[in-house]
Amino acid sequence: MSLPHAIVTAFSHAFDFRGRANRREFWYFLLFAVIVWLALLTFDLDFMADWLGFMPMEEGAPRYFSNAWALICIVPFVSLVARRVHDHGYSGWWALTVLPLAWWLVAKGSKEPNRFG
To answer: What are the pLDDT digits (tens) for 38-65?
Structure first.
């Protein structure tokens, strides 16, 4: 799966918590989301702050675009995490646990079909 395909898949399946997601899809989307968020945060703190009368990088300067991007990415990210957990054969609700979740996000999923796809 390529980077553009992973991004399109993540957003097009944002409200689809069924099925599976492979590691590449998850990590490509996370990489894309973080890079865009950092670019928007830089824009907010350097340029938007100046336009709104704040000093660049000033504490309390508004972060409109970076916060909006974070809100846009929450649902696709949660969906990807649930589908990533499905790739290991567990219910998406297991994503609420912290310790196994870190392993499930990094480890290769099961090759054989499971109840999630």
So the answer is: 999 989 888 887 777 777 666 777 888 9
68-79: pLDDT as tens digits? 999 999 999 999
- Cα 85 to Cα 104: distance, rounded to the nearest angstrom: 6
Residue given tokens 């870190």 in the structure block:
102
For residue 113, being part of any structural domain is answered with no
Q: Which residues contact 86 (CB under 8 A, 6 or more apart)?
A: 18, 19, 20, 21, 92, 114, 116, 117
Does 117 fall in a domain?
no
Please give the structure tokens belonging to residue 111.
């090759």
What is the model's pTM? 0.78
How far from 1 is each of 10, 20, 38, 46, 93, CA to CA, in Å? 12, 14, 24, 35, 26
Does any domain span residue 111?
no
Domain containing residue 36: 3-106
Q: In total, how many domains does the chain have?
A: 1
